[in-house]
Amino acid sequence: MRLVWKSALLVGIVAGATAAVAQWSIGAPGKREAPAGKHRYVYLVFANPIPGREAEFNEWYSNVHMGDLVQLPGWTGAQRFRLITSVLPPPSAAGYKHGYLMIWDLEASDASAPLSMSTAAIAGGKSRLGVGFNYNPGAGSSGTWAAMGPRLTRPDGKGPTLTDPADNNMPRLNRYLLLELSNALPGRDADFDRSAEERMQSVLALPGWLAAQRFRMADTPGRAPSDKPRYLTMWETEGASAQIINSTLNKALENGTAKRNTAADEKTAEMVYWEPITPHITKDDFER
User: Fold this and answer.
1) 3-state SS of the chain?
2) pTM value?
3) What was the pLDDT predicted at 135?
């Protein structure tokens, strides 16, 4: 089933578009905690289209594939993002290999059950393949991370900025996602966790930094290991541009307002900004 009421809009946004469109809110609202007896996971898929088939890749991904999987038990939400390469200096050297990101929200007693359901759905044809998606081994990258705590918002309670209804000259701010993937230095996982928690509080006090949630790579027996770092922090931000957001962070790190994680292995870290190119959807978008 296609998400018909959104299809035309989404195709116009993602079919080979190059202009910034970071207009959508990011993820589900609230603290994003799993119900009792279950855990919350994010399954991240990094991909590139087959050369020359980007429009077909985007149309299938947004209007077919998202709905095919979000209907499955344990698959509670989905949203697509596009890589931002214009931030200078780049926050990290790595992480720019793939131009598109899909974030799937999972809730289950363990990650293996919903992941197995998707594998079976794809094999059986319930989840339809896309002609623009590169299925060759090694073409994409993926991983599953388990939530380490709830989604945290700003300590001052300030939420996203909306312009005054009477102000017809000021556009609202864009929304951006910063994925911070990193490993702890050998033998320093405890220090890494402690520093990461302190870092969240200091960064969320900065202008434009709205929310964050931490994750750790999940155990997924029988699946190929991910090539991504073990720890993940998902930062939700708003601003006129990702460059302004990143400059705010860099200035705070330089003057000590924001904390650095001194136990992180910077050589393997990936810090990359993404812009949302679809809304966050759930199976309710197909049931109503």
Assistant:
1) CCCHHHHHHHHHHHCCCCCCCCCCCCCCCCCCCCCCCCEEEEEEEEECECCCCHHHHHHHHHHHHHHHHHCCCCEEEEEEEEECCCCCCCCCCCCCCCCEEEEEEEEECCCHHHHHHHHHHHHHCCCCCCCCECCCCCCCEEEEEEECCCCEECCCCCCCCCCCCCCCCCCCCEEEEEEEEECECCCCHHHHHHHHHHHHHHHCCCCCEEEEEEEEECCCCCCCCCCCCCEEEEEEEEECCHHHHHHHHHHHHHHCCCCCCCCECCCCCEEEEEEECCCCECCHHHHC
2) 0.91
3) 93
